[in-house]
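Incident log, support desk, overnight shift.

02:14 A customer reports that sequence design results differ from what the structure should imply. Their input is reproduced verbatim below. On-call engineer (initials T.W.) acknowledged and began investigating.
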């Protein structure tokens, strides 16, 4: 596998090859003392409990989330933002809200997964402040039951980059006094879904949401280059996570404890959240002073993404200088996380302060921001483990990873490499309990002014969706067959990642 990288002609490709080999070698050489007690025993003895699945998100999948309120504004803040910036809205998306039954059946029968990461649309549940749509909550409960019917474990995400417009209008997560609105929404969702859901994620990547909206200006509220607000939003989202965790699992009056007295068979909730990891590396083919400057930028950028998050769950202290300080403390934070999700796609090469677009066809994908970079899985797991998982003794789920490509051969090769690295990491004791790559289906991808086409330009799905046909027909891609066949063999033979990485 690594040899193919070595055959690339240019210097960048050779550097990439060495990095990839080093990642595999490091995974193979590490000792196994990292494993929290019982985790590997559980999955060696019960491999069917490994969460092999796929991912989705409400606004990108469901459709019907571009409704307007009585004042003529869209109830979804992303829809309002995209409308104001002449970017495409999701519209029908893939119409999952109406087609969930057949989609779930296909995911089980054609792809063979046993888990599905699915998010709840806060604006659908609560289109106006204090108002809850019980019909929508009931339908989400039905979707969970259908997943369970097909022995697919739901991983429910409460926030995947979107908020109601009314929440944005009062300042959103910029104001700590607004947090209680999100906590109450989370409690309402738990009330309706708790019988069928074990795994909960409060947030899909707080840094992804905050950087989009307050640093890059690609999402609501569309603010650019405001690191103070970016960090403040992240801190408040982390505080919301702890409050939700304690509301559900608090030892004295937590919702789980109260519900369990009535129904002892309900699952013990496992509440975590997801972390985006984007490795920033200095660009190589430059003079030494520029490379040094690029390296410094990479270190600063890594700190801006990660430091507050990891510190908060290790010590309860979020403290970042922007240079204006952003501080928050909650002593319960280290005890308020049951698992950590890793979202990882690519690294970025930095030239001073600017990320460089990939130009080598061997590494380009149809997502302009992400390279074809399987080695990122190793680097992401190592970072998450060293900075958090080993300190809190918690397992890791790889909650997003994938490749945007129209080439079935590239997709197959990508997942073959990814699964090989995951195998090595698990064998050496990293507490990985699931892999739910993005995405089950081609879908609406978040538009930007640089890449406005949202439906056809970045196809991550295992299932192809024909957006030119109003019926939105689906079919399993040939490039997904390797992943499907791997899952089938994994469960059938009851072995951990017994694959031959040297064969296509």
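02:41 Re-run completed on a clean worker. Output:
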């Amino acid at each position: 596998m690594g040899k193919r990288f070595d055959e690339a002609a240019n210097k960048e490709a050779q550097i990439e090859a060495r990095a990839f080999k080093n990642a595999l070698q490091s995974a193979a050489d590490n000792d196994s003392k990292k494993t929290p007690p019982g985790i590997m025993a559980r999955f060696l003895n019960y491999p069917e409990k490994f969460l092999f699945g796929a991912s989705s998100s409400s606004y990108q999948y469901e459709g019907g989330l571009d409704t307007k309120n009585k004042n003529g504004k869209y109830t979804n803040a992303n829809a309002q933002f995209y409308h104001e910036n002449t970017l495409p809205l999701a519209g029908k998306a893939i119409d999952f809200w109406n087609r969930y039954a057949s989609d779930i059946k296909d995911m089980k029968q054609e792809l063979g997964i046993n888990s599905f990461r699915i998010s709840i649309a806060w604006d659908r549940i609560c289109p106006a402040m204090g108002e809850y749509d019980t019909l929508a909550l009931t339908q989400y409960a039905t979707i969970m039951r259908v997943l369970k019917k097909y022995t697919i474990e739901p991983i429910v995400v409460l926030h995947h980059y979107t908020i109601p417009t009314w929440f944005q209008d009062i300042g959103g997560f910029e104001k700590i006094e607004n947090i209680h609105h999100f906590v109450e929404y989370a409690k309402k969702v738990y009330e309706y879904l708790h019988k069928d859901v074990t795994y909960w994620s409060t947030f899909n990547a707080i840094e992804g949401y905050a950087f989009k909206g307050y640093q890059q200006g690609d999402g609501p509220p569309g603010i650019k280059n405001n690191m103070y607000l970016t960090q403040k939003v992240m801190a408040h989202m982390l505080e919301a996570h702890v409050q939700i965790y304690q509301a559900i699992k608090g030892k004295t009056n937590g919702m789980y404890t109260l519900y369990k007295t009535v129904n002892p068979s309900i699952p013990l909730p496992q509440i975590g959240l997801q972390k985006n990891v984007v490795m920033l590396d200095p660009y190589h083919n430059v003079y030494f002073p520029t490379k040094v400057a690029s390296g410094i930028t990479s270190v600063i950028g890594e700190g801006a993404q990660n430091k507050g998050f990891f510190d908060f769950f290790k010590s309860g202290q979020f403290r970042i200088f922007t240079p204006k300080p952003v501080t928050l403390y909650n002593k319960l934070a280290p005890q308020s996380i049951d698992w950590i999700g890793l979202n990882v796609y690519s690294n970025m090469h930095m030239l001073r302060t600017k990320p460089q677009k990939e130009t080598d066809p061997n590494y380009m994908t149809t997502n302009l921001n992400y390279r074809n970079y399987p080695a990122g899985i190793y680097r992401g797991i190592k970072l998450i483990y060293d900075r958090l998982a080993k300190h809190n003794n918690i397992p890791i789920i790889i909650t997003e990873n994938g490749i945007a490509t129209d080439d079935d051969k590239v997709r197959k090769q990508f997942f073959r490499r990814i699964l090989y690295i995951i195998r090595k990491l698990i064998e050496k004791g990293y507490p990985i309990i699931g892999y739910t790559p993005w995405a089950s289906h081609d879908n609406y991808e978040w538009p930007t002014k640089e890449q406005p086409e949202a439906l056809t330009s970045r196809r991550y799905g295992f299932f192809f969706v024909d957006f030119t046909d109003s019926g939105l027909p689906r079919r399993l891609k040939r490039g997904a067959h390797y992943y499907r066949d791997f899952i089938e063999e994994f469960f059938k033979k009851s072995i951990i990642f017994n694959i031959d990485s040297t064969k296509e």
